[in-house]
Every structure is written in C-alpha cells, then in structure tokens.
C-alpha cells in the first residue's frame, strides 16, 4: 500500500458504485477525499462521515484547487457520471463527464498525483454507436482522447465496467428493474425482447475489489495509458438471467420474451477481457446465481 499521507480522491461517492467503493477505501485505512455536490443525498455514506480518514470535499472549482494544493493526493478515481436520461441538457452531461475529470486530472498533474482511474461503461467499446445513451457515450469517448493526451504526465487507467448489478442500484438499471418488477412487485407480466443479447453480469463487490486491485497496482507502478476491462469474462443471455430472477423468487410473473423488438443498434454480445486483472491476481467471486440470491435475501430482509 502507498504511504499514510498518500490519499485517494473519489468522485461519485454518493452513487451506487461510488458509495460501495468509498466504504472499501475508508476501511483500507487510506486518507480518502470524496467529492460531493450540494444536492447529493448522503444516506449511502452517512455511517462513514465521522471516520477520521475521510474528508468530504465541495465540488466547486475553487474548493477543489484548495484541497489539491493542501492535501497529498496520489490517485484520483472518477466514478461520477451523468447518463443524460430524461432530457438532461448536453452541457450538464459534459460538465460531469468531460470538464470535471479533465480539471481533476490537470489538478492532479499540478500537485503531484501519480494516477487517474476513469470508470467507463461497456457500451462505449462500440465507438458511440449506442443511440440509447449517445450523448453520454460521446462525452466519455471525448474524455478518453483528453486523458490519453495527458497520460505522459500522469498514469491513466480506463476501467471499463461490464453489466454491473447489486442491491440498492438505481431502478432505471436493467437487473434492478427486473428484480423489482418480478420478485418484489410480482407484476402479472413483463414485456421483453427475445433476450438473446449476451452480457457479462458482474456483481458490485467484485467490481469494487477489481478497482482496488487496479489502485494498488498504480500506487506502485507507472503505466502508459491503459484500458482494463472489469467483468467476469463470461457472457450470459439476458433471457437466462431474467428467468433466473423469476425462478429464485418463485415469481408468477409471465415473462413475455419477444414482445419488445430489438433496437436497430442493439449490442448483442459483450464481455470483459480479464487478462490484465488476471495478471493482478484478481478473480470474480460472485456467480449470477449467488448475486441474484444475495439481492433477493437483502430485499426480503430489509425492503427494496
């Protein structure tokens, strides 16, 4: 591990992934500086706010400049994201996905940070052709160009997440939506595509442990600009995981496969190339069966 004064700066700390990562970082004993916006809900991280190795940082540029000048920050992890759903203005998407991370990378370079870890999504592997989140994809692809330009002065790792899932995710995410509809609300029927798309479903705790493995590596080794996939390395048909949710919850919901047409640009198969993570000694621990069962158990015990 890096020295005791070598902190980690994290964006997106109140989100699904960011909050899980924040818990792990704080527990590791590192100094952690988590950026939060005034409108952010802090319920996911409330139990951490009194921890002595955690400092919450205001998101405004002047505060960021002051904190980077004052603190010893070794690595920046950019987990914040704006998907641009529900008519979010393009300028807002660019602020979150491009302007902020470039500003942080430059602050890191100015104040001696060694590494920048960018959290990316699997559908950006397809060069911005995914129309469902086109503005998001374009902003993230543009960011990669700038990070590559900056990479001679700071180690940059682009961590590409496959289909992440886990308890407490946003209701707009596919697995969470299916669990709520099928296992919790037990609706009469769910309309779906044929479900032949293949996805690499990776559980939240495995994503966190993968990012920590990357962090430990960049704390000790300077790297050229590098993309590392985070997933199990195996693809599973969407219809199979939806059927698994129904089976494990013993739900009466009718699964109407084929009721919804595929999008014209549907991504039919995606999985992570895990060779880099293999080289770091990382392996996924949670199977889809165990992951879905864990979510159902959590919700049955505490509510969704």
Task: Briefly characterize the structure.
The chain is α/β, with parallel strands linked by helices and 304 residues long.
Q: What key phrases describe this protein's structure?
A:
304 residues; alpha/beta; Rossmann fold; UDP-galactose 4-epimerase, domain 1; 2 domains; seven-stranded parallel β-sheet; two-stranded parallel sheet; 9 helices; 39% helix; globular; disordered N terminus
Helix-strand blueprint:
Elements: E1 7-11, H1 16-28, E2 32-36, E3 54-58, H2 61-70, E4 73-78, H3 90-110, E5 115-121, H4 134-150, E6 155-161, E7 163-165, H5 174-184, E8 189-192, E9 198-199, E10 201-203, H6 204-220, E11 226-230, E12 236-237, H7 238-248, E13 254-257, H8 275-279, H9 288-302
Parallel strand pairs: 1-2, 1-4, 2-3, 4-5, 5-6, 6-11, 7-10, 8-13
Antiparallel strand pairs: 9-12
Helix pairs in contact: 1-6, 2-3, 3-4, 5-7, 7-9
Commentary on this structure:
- This protein is α/β, with parallel strands linked by helices.
- 39% of the residues lie in helices and 19% in strands.
- The chain has a 7-stranded parallel sheet with strand order 3-2-1-4-5-6-11, with helices on both faces. A two-stranded parallel ribbon has the order 7-10. A two-stranded parallel sheet has the order 8-13.
- Helix 3 links the parallel strand 4 and strand 5.
- The longest helix is centred in the first third of the chain and has 21 residues.
